[in-house]
Amino acid sequence: GAAVSMVQKDLKKLVAYSSVAHLGLVMVGLFALTNSALAGGVMQMLSHGISTGALFLLVGVIYERRHTKLIEEFGGIAKVMPAYCAIFVIITLSSVGLPGTNGFIGEFLILWGTFTSKVLVHPRWVTAVAATGVILGVVYMLSAVMRVFFGSLKNPKNKALKDLGAREWAYLLPLVVVVVLMGVWPNPFLRRIEPAVELVRMDYLEKAKKSVSLTRPVLDSPVSFLLPDEYLPAGETIMPTSPTPPPPVASSMTAPPKKLSSPPVLNKPGLMPKAIMKVPAGGPMPAPPPGGES
Q1: How would you class 274 by CB atoms within 10 Å of its CB: exposed for 0-12, middle for 13-18, buried for 19 or more?
Q2: Could you tell me which of 18, 112, 194, 251 has the fewest CB atoms within 10 Å of its CB?
């Protein structure tokens, strides 16, 4: 999102693609699965709704006067619209995460929670990539502000632009107040976010315990969705599950001997009888004839 925003020539499209960069940072916080990162993600969504909504309103103000959103059509309009320029700069600084504004709270919590995450494979590298997106956001937003508001007033159509009216002050000033309030006093918002964050995290841990069979060698492997014991609440552990024993295999060595229906016949020479005596039913076996062989 940040890379696409840097090449935009339309001010409204630039603001729109900046939303993609902000929400990408939110996703990093959600996958980090720490309380700080999750709370920062929710805070960033709130801040994004306020700051980006205000930026779209500000783009609509200038479009209503000039009927164009191309950045090259402006330049130096801070000389004729100082109040509009001041509001736009404040909202832009909140969007890029200036300390003291709402954007700083969410971005800082996300980056800190991601850096200390034990779920991600390489949390420090993920934090570095996310911080790069934040830096690029500063580049394209401040570059747009410089090209639109500062410099020489070359376009004669911009010399007759009117500054903010009472109606525009009425819907822009409350947004500025909320931007500053969330930046200097975020605790009321974070206290209301914390129970939901803890509930989501505990629900994920509970599902992970039921769906993933963990053993100690697996816990030491770099897999992002496995949870070490330190991530569980106090007093809870994930017990390694023993594999299910395979079903017994029938073997000829252990099979019971089959019952023979007749006496065995000896195959050694000289020992094979000429006749096999049968036992009559209900009587004892008769004695062999005297004299051995008949």
Answers
A1: exposed
A2: 251
Distance CA 117, CA 192 (A): 23
What gap in Å lies between CA 146 and CA 254, rounded to an integer? 88
The pLDDT confidence band at residue 120, using thresholds 50, 70 and 90, is confident
Which band of pLDDT confidence, cut at 50, 70 and 90, is reported for residue 291?
low
Distance in angstroms (rounded) separating the CA atoms of residues 128 and 116: 13
pLDDT at residue 259 is higher than 90: no
Share of the chain above pLDDT 70, in %: 71
Phi, psi of 10 (to 5 degrees): -100, 130
What is the rounded distance in angstroms from the CA atom of residue 36 to the CA atom of residue 282?
A: 92
CB 152 within 8 A of CB 80: no
Phi (first) and psi of residue 116, to 5 degrees: -95, 10
